[in-house]
Amino acid sequence: MGCGPEDKNVVLELTYNYGVKEYDKGNGYAQIAIGTDDVYKTAEATRVFGGKIALEPGPLPGINTKITACLDPDGWKSVFVDNVDFLKELE
Question: pTM value?
Answer without folding.
Answer: 0.72
